[in-house]
């Protein structure tokens, strides 16, 4: 399912955080949100997730405004993982992941085989099988992040919104997670800091600076030395690997 952002502006506590944001995230593609700290990436992700009611009018899913969707409809359609997701300390990994099935179940429905299959698949994808019975408070920062992503995958959403998902992850899990999300048959919008990972695993990029879109499109056309200099204030050169991948080097 595709997502369209049309002239979205967000003001928080009398400060304009986002101004006239417009772009489209095509169905089943991975779109990377890039930009320096404070550029508005997290605010934009939260606006798309429906966390900011003031932004409903500028966000459309499959051509329908999120303001026209009920919370249950929105929860069945998209899953959102914030940067610093928390859970009840006494819950285990499996119990947290099972919460992802809530939008698909009523208060009185029984736990079905399909629910358990969704949970087990998510645990396996995030390599959490051995930690399923471990309490939340005994998890490392990276394990907590993987747990929350597993919960989101258990929702079986059409759209997955991830705010800095590779923070706190070891390099191995950063690469594995980016490979995983780029292979999912859903629309993924992910905020990232690592330009090389974004170039390698995202089909499209949207670059924010001071609350505005300064570039969008395919990684080849977006990540140029001039744009990197203007946006991040660093000198960079672009090289190609033997397989044609972009490799950004900083001076």
UniProtKB/TrEMBL annotation:
GO terms of molecular function: ATP binding; ATP hydrolysis activity
Residue ranges of domain ABC transporter in the record: 3-235
Protein's UniProt keywords contain Heme: no
Protein name stated in the entry: Histidinol phosphatase
Pfam families hit by this protein: ABC_tran (PF00005)
Family as reported in the entry's similarity comment: Belongs to the ABC transporter superfamily. Drug exporter-2 (TC 3.A.1.117) family.
Alphabetized SMART domains for the sequence: AAA
Keywords: ATP-binding, Nucleotide-binding, Transport
